[in-house]
Amino acid sequence: MQTPNQRLLIVDDDEMFCHVLSRSLTRRGFEVIVANDADQALALAAQHMPTMATLDLKLENSSGLKLLPDLLAVVPHCHVVVLTGYSSIATAVEAIKLGAVNYLCKPVDADDVLTAFERSQGDPNIEVADNPPSINRITWEHIQKVLQEHDGNISATARALGMHRRTLQRKLQKRPVRH
Predict the structure, then answer these.
(1) CB 3.0–4.6 Å: which of 52, 68, 132, 135 could bond 98 by disulfide?
(2) Distance (Å, rounded) from C-alpha 112 to C-alpha 30?
(3) DSSP secondary structure of 15-62
(4) Residue-wise pLDDT tens digits, 139-175
């Protein structure tokens, strides 16, 4: 998939992650552009017209899911891989519906990202897991779904879930539960 001087936009508010990924992809022949927020991402996308982009799901003041349609409106032929440390089935499904070609759980490296771009088609032969997700994982996914339905509003999400806002904030600060 890579050609010399192919442009790749990295959108992530973690500057160290951007630096490491950018350096690794630049060594592999990519022209890398880095944006740390949604406004900067849209401006750089319009200016540089990247063919590929990585998009963090949880930006400091925004959501990658909200940015994704706007980014694709600016660069319609851009292939986008969504990255997140807060993965859930709900956000993965929405990312794909909104136009992402793949969805990866952090931590990732350059090899993972490039493989995700290469595998932009589904694999019907992928193995189905034998064990269902834990109740804690299902709870985490439900909270993420309700949070998304309320556009990231913690107070509205807490009301919808019937829990105190601070309790919800504590739950959201924890790392996602593994399956």
Answers:
(1) 68
(2) 15
(3) HHHHHHHHHHHHHTT-EEEEESSHHHHHHHHHHH--SEEEEESEETTE
(4) 887 888 888 888 888 999 999 999 999 998 888 887 6
Radius of gyration of the chain, Cα coordinates, nearest whole angstrom = 17
Q: Which of 43, 53, 48, 51 is nearest to 11 (CA)?
A: 53
Q: Which helix (H) or strand (E) holds 81?
A: strand 79-84
**84 contacts 97 by C-beta, under 8 angstroms:** no
Closest to 52 (Cα-Cα) out of 17, 28, 87: 28
Asked if residues 176 and 140 have their Cβ atoms less than 8 Å apart, the reply is yes
Question: Among residues 16, 11, 15, which one has the least CA distance to residue 62?
Answer: 11
- What is the number of other CB atoms lying within 10 angstroms of the CB of residue 2? 15
Task: Give Cα 112 to chain centroid, integer Å.
Answer: 13
Q: From CA 9, how far away is CA 132, in angstroms rounded?
A: 36
pTM attached to this predicted model: 0.73
- Phi/psi of residue 51, nearest 5 degrees: -95, -15
> Which structure tokens are listed for 172?
């959201």
